[in-house]
């Protein structure tokens, strides 16, 4: 868990981290979140001279932001947690905003990160899985049911690996950091090898690594072109673990996307700027948005 006190302009005033401790069960994780938020608020009162006036929290899985409910998260084992109400109660009835982790990170990247100034952008972090955040005029489009942007479950190879969602050949089974790790561990014969090791081997010219890397880039480019066709973003922001490979990823990826487009306009394809602070900053922006909405109302 990552947390921060965030100023009105998006400045990180204080950061802290805690182990999620998911092995202790869903109820313990929820209590850890509540206690962590209370600690953070107390830190602000003691060291910054004032209390937080609103809170934002970003969680994985299925989120009903309007009702403030963390509906489901497979990795955390929870269902239908009224997180907004629980946090507001623990924090002295201040307003609380609840958001989806990828969309919240995308909000920060769009407003104060790599997408700053872009009217339309698409944020895609390549981590354990692949998701996406659709940015339109400074806000993130969640969709009618909160599922918008799930690019990781676009089928790019119908005969590909089985996906946990029930389909075969989903983008995240082929081009996520986890997928590259699996492929490189198998190709290299080293069960401890990961995606970062694959990127280093690519840079040193290892032909097996180049094949694994190019397979992932080909799949990623296919998925991204589908997204470009539907969304027509001006900026495409790539983040997550694979993006840490820098131009080892971006140079061939830009070429692969450009090669596949026909009538579509090629967007700016750029690395994310905020790293793993994006979620904290985005949660802070959600909180400030909540206050500005209340004022305008």
Helical proportion, percent range? 40-55%
The whole-angstrom Rg is 20 Å
Side by side, the strands of the main sheet go 10-9-8-11-12
Share of β-strand residues: 15-25%
Structure summary, number of beta strands? 12
Kindly report the average pLDDT value. Answer: 92
Tally of DSSP helical segments: 9
Q: Are there runs of 5+ residues with pLDDT below 50, and where?
A: none
Derived structural class: alpha/beta
Shape: globular
Spell the H/E element sequence. Answer: EEHEEEEHEHEEEHHHHEHEH
Q: Give the N-to-C terminal Cα separation.
A: 33 Å
Biggest pleated-sheet summary: 5 strands, mixed
Description:
The structure is a single chain. By secondary structure, the protein is an alpha/beta fold. It is built from nine helices and twelve strands. Strands 10-9-8-11-12 form a five-stranded mixed β-sheet, with helices on one face. It is globular. The model has no long low-confidence stretch (mean pLDDT 92).
């Amino acid at each position: 868990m990552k947390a921060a006190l965030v100023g009105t302009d998006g400045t990180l005033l204080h950061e802290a981290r805690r182990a999620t401790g998911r092995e202790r069960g869903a109820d313990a994780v929820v209590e850890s979140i509540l206690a962590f938020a209370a600690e953070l608020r107390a830190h602000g009162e003691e060291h910054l001279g004032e209390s937080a006036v609103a809170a934002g929290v970003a969680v994985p899985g299925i989120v009903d932001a309007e009702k403030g409910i963390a509906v489901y998260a497979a990795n955390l084992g929870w269902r239908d947690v009224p997180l907004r109400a629980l946090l507001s109660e623990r924090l002295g009835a201040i307003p609380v905003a609840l958001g989806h982790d990828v969309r919240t990170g995308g909000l920060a990247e769009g407003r104060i990160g790599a997408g700053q100034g872009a009217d339309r952008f698409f944020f895609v972090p390549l981590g354990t899985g692949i998701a996406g955040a659709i940015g339109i005029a400074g806000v993130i489009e969640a969709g009618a049911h909160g599922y918008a942007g799930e690019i990781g479950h676009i089928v790019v190879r119908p005969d590909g690996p089985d996906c946990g969602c029930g389909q075969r050949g989903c983008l995240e089974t082929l081009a996520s950091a986890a997928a590259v790790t699996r492929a490189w561990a198998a190709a290299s014969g080293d069960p401890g090898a990961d995606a970062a090791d694959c990127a280093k081997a690519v840079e040193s010219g290892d032909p097996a690594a180049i094949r694994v890397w190019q397979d992932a880039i080909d799949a990623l480019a296919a998925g991204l072109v589908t997204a470009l066709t539907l969304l027509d973003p001006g900026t495409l922001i790539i983040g997550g673990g694979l993006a840490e490979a820098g131009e080892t990823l971006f140079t061939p990826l830009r070429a692969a996307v450009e090669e596949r487009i026909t009538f579509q306009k090629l967007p700016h394809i750029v690395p994310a700027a905020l790293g793993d602070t994006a979620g904290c900053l985005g949660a802070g922006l959600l909180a400030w948005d909540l206050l500005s909405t209340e004022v305008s109302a």
